Amino acid sequence: MMDLPIPVKDNIISYHRDGNAYVFESERGLLKVSFIKDNLAHICFSPSRRFREKQMWILDNIEEKAANIREDNDAYQVSCGNINVIIDRANSSIRYTRQSSDESNEADVIFAENPSVNREFEKVQEYLTIDDGNIETVDVQTADGVKKIVESARKQEGRMLYRTRLHLSFEEDEALYGLGQSEEGVFNLRGHIRYLHQANRKISIPVLMSSKGYGLFFPSGSAGIFCDNEHGTYFQTEADEMLEYYFLAGEFLDESISLFRYLTGKAMLLPRWAYGYLQSKERYESEAELMEIADGFKSRDIGIDALILDWITWEDNMWGQKTLDKKRFPDADLMMKKLHDMDLRLMISIWPNMTEQCDNHREFKENKLLCPGTNVYNAMSKAGRELYWKQVYEGLYCHGIDGFWCDSSEPFTPEWIREIKPDPAEAYKEFIKAGYDSMPYDEINAYGYYHALGIYEGQRKTANHRVMNLTRSGYPGSQRLGTVLWSGDIGASFDTLRRQVAEGLNMCASGLPYWTIDIGAFFVKRGAPWYWEGHYPEGLDNLGYRELYVRWYQYGAFLPVFRSHGTDCPREPWQFGEKGDMFYDALIKANELRYKLMPYIYSVAYKVWRDDYTMMRLLAFDFADDKNVANIDDQYMFGPSLMVCPVLEEMYYDEKSRCLDTQKRRKVYLPKGCKWYDIRDNKEYEGGKYIEVDADIYSIPVFAREGSIIPMCEGLKNCANMENATIKPVVYGEVDCSFEMYTDNGDGYDYLDGKGKLQLLKYSKNKGLVIE
Fold first, then answer.
1. Which of 140, 233, 318, 499 has its CA 20 to 30 A from that of 604?
2. Following DSSP, what letter does each residue of 188-218 receive, concatenated?
3. Are 268 and 253 in contact (CB under 8 A)?
4. Rounded distance, CA 12 to CA 9, Å?
5. Which of 410, 518, 655, 678 is catalytic?
6. What is the DSSP secondary structure assignment for residue 353, as one 8-state letter?
7. pLDDT in tens, 133-167
């Protein structure tokens, strides 16, 4: 551990037992220590000497477990299983140790608060906007429609809250991951500062994971800061009733992710079609265009499972109205029947903000269920969520629409009002101001969770179809609501693509396993304001963009959800050429590979639900003992068997369509401890070294881990036909191994009761491959 300064005093005065928890009175407040499981500790410190109720995103059935206490002259030790929480008598700082299982029974330090300045507090008075009809607002045109901004309003005092700061201590060579997804492409968070607020291209999740295997979960809905630089190492929340965190004492990352989901809920299995290819663009304008696209896929025999309708499906000037414009979508029931007859599903974007002219807004206003001073519905209110689902059901879901795309679910993006991109600290402050004007201070980061909760609860009460909710913002607990997060409206460049890989890995390391991107980026061209930052003004006419799109598509084929979307140019595969053109052929090959792997992907998805597994895995999940992987941000495991190595640099054309004379090669690190097999040619490699491999436009380097059985199928073009597909398991290596293959009917919630079909694929040198 690092050398630490002399501690600041916060003496423990006394302690008492409260149920299964231990409450310590110190000079500055009350410290509460409890265990939820043997390897899951819960820490609360309240300067007001009052403890808040459990947060909404923590499951109702979470209870404290009995623990033992021991004291000596220097410290108290609260223990459960082999985990000890040691509280220093002199300053109340905490360190965590694990008892060794060997004969020595020594305790190894896992993690420690910084004893020199372990906790700091600053009072923050909450002021709530009074919705008395006299709020002065201004309408601002944004990329997400017109939004109302509060300029002035009468306010009333709310609660006395606290800015909290917990000072932390990490080992010098310890790597940190998580905190959701941003856009800078920072992978290992050591040495960086991260502002935790929601934004168009930012999903903040207050979960840190260590390369040592443990994790920290701060269950606050407040905005926050993680800092690890010359100003200190700490986690800060802006407005909270108390300082609170869970110590996830996993010995490896999967275990800590499982503990996080024990608290916040299992990640639900999506409908099977959601793992196929999803085609979108900004935007399909009518039923006729939608059916033309569907016919285009079917006539070319290209794999697809769903089409997605972006905004303005409503009548003119009725932003956010949850009904279809009958001029462009004359018969929604018939349209859905046609799509379903083609084994296609339809998703549609819905928004939390509504223009004053539409009926949906009037209904919310009459029921006083808008966030004060805004045209955004109050998702924190149960009545607000129920009314929102009522409108969704009556206007859309009743026609058979299959899934929803909850856009702008932050729901405030003040940085997108600006002509110049604000720096991170400035964007943070602007989000806090917008949130404080309309929401409780300690919930401004959690709107996306509440929004998804309303969709999930509404659909579950209405139908037995699995929820598929593509949403731009989420929070701990969102994984139990059928959500898929995506990285927002990004700009097209190879640099952006590189950064997205790192951000996606941190998102999934935060405990929320379903994440995706706009394949090819949302913005292709460059314009104003600042966020319209694509590098390809000619769009599809630029050969450099076509190359970038292929590489992005190949990467997307190995994400939990495989989806193309964007503006400036269409995204259907045939827009990039026809059969025989290298870009088109490369896209089709990636598409076919996705569907070929569908038995494997769906089985891994079931494992995500059953075992609290993570599908998209930074290499430290599986190779923690290999110190070389801690900072590798451009390779990852896709399930237990496949290591994906996206091609993240231009090799054929530059951004001006000029031909490049480069070697089409990609450097790859093969983690130690096993052999690896390039799935393109089955060539075998020893682990623990760097190699260079072919990286031509037609393929993405993917390596199978020795001791893998990967079920594959040929010719699949749609997940609806998966039950009839012929499965061919492929074994990599000559070591004994197994794989659980999962199948079901692709929809409904019978899997919760164990009604799907599990088959054990086993390989041994003596018996070969056996299916049980």
1. 499
2. S-TT-EEEE--BTTBEEEEEEEETTS-EEE-
3. no
4. 9
5. 410
6. B
7. 889 999 888 888 888 889 999 999 999 999 999 99
Residue 544, helix vs strand vs coil: helix
pLDDT (tens digit per residue) in 99-124 = 987 666 678 999 999 998 899 999 99
Q: What is the mean pLDDT of residues 656-685?
A: 96
Helix 494-509 / helix 543-556 crossing angle, nearest 10 deg: 10
Look at residue 616 and tell me whether its pLDDT is greater than 90: yes
The two three-digit tokens of residue 123, written as one number: 């009072």
305, 442, 443, 489: which is the annotated catalytic residue?
489
356 counts as catalytic = no
CA–CA gap between residue 553 and residue 278 (Å, rounded) = 12
Residues whose CB is less than 8 angstroms from the CB of residue 455 and which lie 6 or more positions away in sequence, other chains included: 388, 389, 392, 404, 406, 467, 469, 481, 482
- C-alpha 652/C-alpha 660 separation (Å) is 5
Nearest to 619 by CA among 489, 505, 758: 505
Phi and psi based region of residue 562 (left: phi greater than 0; alpha: psi -120 to 50; beta: remaining): beta
Catalytic residue among 282, 407, 518, 626: 407
Q: Give the pLDDT confidence score for residue 8 in this predicted structure.
A: 61
The residue with tokens 């709530």 is 128
Annotation marks residue 489 as catalytic: yes
Q: Kindly report, residue by residue over 575-615, the tens digit of the pLDDT.
A: 999 999 999 999 999 999 999 999 999 999 999 999 999 99
The closest of 220, 149, 143 to 179, measured between CA atoms, is: 220
